[in-house]
Amino acid sequence: MIIILDPGHGMSNRRSGVYDPGAVSEGVAEADIALAWANELRGILQGMKHKVVRTRVDKNDPAPVSRRDDIARSYKGDRMLSLHCNAANGRATGSEVYFRGDDDRPMAKALSAVVASVLGIKDRGAKTEADSQHASLAVMEFDKCWLLEIGFIDNPADRMKMLDPALRKKTCEAIAKILTS
Hints:
Blueprint: E1 2-7, E2 10-11, E3 19-20, E4 24-25, E5 28-29, H1 30-47, E6 51-54, H2 68-74, E7 79-86, E8 95-99, H3 105-119, E9 123-128, E10 145-152, H4 156-163, H5 165-179
Parallel strand pairs: 1-6, 1-7, 7-10, 8-9
Antiparallel strand pairs: 2-3, 4-5, 8-10
Helix pairs in contact: 1-5, 3-5
């Protein structure tokens, strides 16, 4: 299987040559969490003998959001997972997964549930692209794509769990099993 991992935000995400950190809380950037999780998940998936392509590999790798679905298509990806962190009011908690087509709902539900379970946070469930704060989600132009909001970066408990290397590894192991099923 060819899995495309999209660590959200980063260099040239919205504007060429400008770094987009995503949501930032207590000096921690969403883009950094997303990249750490993508790298962890990549290692696990490769250990399962899957080919893994990341839409960006570090802070300097330019990855315009409008081109990330094209990257997935050019590598003939079977599935794509875009990794992000939510932000709200500092009190909201939980994981949620956005999807586009009804046939992608079961995977979205399973991903949200397993992340919430392993991290010990609320399962906010599977939501359609239309339920997001944006009119559309550019990465979801790729047919088999799910956008995972791991947790809320501005919630201190969620943030600490997302930054914990042991929890990240355990959660990524669970994500990998679902993503490749």
